[in-house]
Known about the structure:
Layout: H1 14-48, H2 54-61, H3 69-87, H4 111-116, H5 119-128, H6 149-161
Helix pairs in contact: 2-5, 2-6, 3-6, 5-6
Amino acid sequence: xxxxxxxxxxxxxxxxxxxxxxxxxxxxxxxxxxxxxxxxxxxxxxxxxxxxxxxxxxxxxxxxxxxxxxxxxxxxxxxxxxxxxxxxxxxxxxxxxxxxxxxxxxxxxxxxxxxxxxxxxxxxxxxxxxxxxxxxxxxxxxxxxxxxxxxxxxxxxxxxxxxxxxxx
Length: 168
């Protein structure tokens, strides 16, 4: 009587077992390499994205911060120097630089636009420029304002106040 007749399973020879272990090891190493390569690539891609630091957008988005008169004065001056060129002094989107732009600058006086955008998005556009929020690349960034969250908050407040100055 043979081992197979008794119901005993025949063991595979050591030659085949070692080959199976080698393939398991090869696949395990391949998976490890792919996993490490993926983890190295993702931080590079994430790092390339522009994102605003929480302090600028949170301060600008929260009404809890008191905005000083100095910040409001600086914001009004900055709006006149940097924003009004395209958005116009009254925020209508018809500044002297707007004629050659496509798409045209947004009309800050539009109540529909005011409802569609958050304070955080406005602050991000101010500090990081249009491309950071999916707008025109013609809208340049203001990186100097990153360290001045109260001025950014005052600019957001100024832009919000333009909705009430619409000519009827």
